[in-house]
Design a protein that fits this description.
Layout (H helix, E strand, L loop, with lengths): L18 E3 L1 H12 L6 E9 L3 E9 L7 E5 L2 E5 L4 H4 L2 E7 L4 E6 L5 E2 L6 E2 L1
Parallel strand pairs: 1-6, 2-5
Antiparallel strand pairs: 2-3, 4-5, 6-7, 8-9
Length: 123
């Protein structure tokens, strides 16, 4: 008896970008890179902190560290700590100005919840 089996491979769907930057965030980064933070890059990592367990950590660094991912979007570059990559896939970074505060914000599709004050998240 002769049996033939065919194996079909499913086409791989493309991965979402590691991170995207809104135009407002890119504009703010361009301003920071041109002035007070000239010669440095924004590095994003995730630290254990807060009620929910994880928190975004932003720091200014002179260049990439070994293993850092470089995200270039809308004419700006940000660095992503390699240990934070899995937590940030598909995240959109924005910049918001409110009545009493201003800062970078993150819309992360991997988040399963946030603490009440918004300082930390969990996946």
């Amino acid at each position: 008896m002769n049996t033939t089996s065919t194996t079909t491979t499913r086409p791989r769907r493309p991965l979402p970008p590691l991170m995207q930057v809104t135009e407002v965030a890119a504009e703010r980064l361009r301003d920071l890179y041109a002035k007070g933070e000239a010669g440095r890059l924004l590095r994003i990592s995730v630290k254990t902190k807060g009620c929910s367990g994880l928190s975004y950590d932003l720091s200014w660094v002179p260049g990439p560290q070994p293993g850092d991912e470089q995200v270039a979007d809308k004419g700006v570059t940000v660095l992503i700590d390699s240990k934070a990559s899995l937590f940030l896939i598909g995240t959109v970074m924005d910049y918001e100005v409110k009545a009493f505060s201003a800062g970078f914000t993150f819309v992360n599709p991997n988040e399963k919840g946030r603490c009440g004050c918004g300082e930390s998240f969990h996946v």
